[in-house]
Amino acid sequence: MASKFQNRLVGTIVLVAIGVIVLPDILDGQKTHYQEDLDSIPIKPEIAQNENFDVLEPEEDTNELPPSPVSATVKAPSTESSSTPEQVTQKKPQEPLEVEVKEVPERNEYKDSAWIIQLMALKNADNAQTLIEDLQKRGYQAHTKLENGYTRVIIGPDVSKTKLERQISELEKITGSKGRLLKFKPLNP
């Protein structure tokens, strides 16, 4: 004998199945069908028989090559010329010119022209990146440099030393860290 729960479960399943199958047809009502008006495309367009078409004949190509190879004759040099072929071939080869190599001392034009502020060195690179983004939003030219496991926060480079000296006090108010003014070395920043 089936339990009350099984009877209820079977009854519920039957009711749901009837609802799913029968109710949509009853509630849907009269269906309207839409049909698009299509015009058929003719396979071959009809051409009127009385129309005359001009037939163009290909023009002859006047830029054709001659059927046989072209030969050219060169006149022998006249004897009236001041130099003979023997004289031309007997000219002395020129001696190579001496080249003076001057050693130019390597000058670093930008050696003392730029400055940076080394603000701080942080162990956590994420904190350094957050600080860089904040300083860049405030208008500072901020960068990071990885060195010996630390991430250094650098402001600059700038050619004006006095401008960076003024920025040190502003940066101290913002970050709480007093930076150092250093010379910028572009080959080893």
UniProtKB/TrEMBL annotation:
Give the protein name, as stated in the record: SPOR domain-containing protein
Give the matching Pfam families.
Answer: SPOR
Q: Which Gene3D superfamilies match?
A: Sporulation related repeat
Extent of Polar residues compositional bias: 76-90
Q: Where is this region: Disordered?
A: 58-98
Domain SPOR per the UniProt entry, residue ranges: 109-184
Q: Which organism is it from?
A: Vibrio olivae
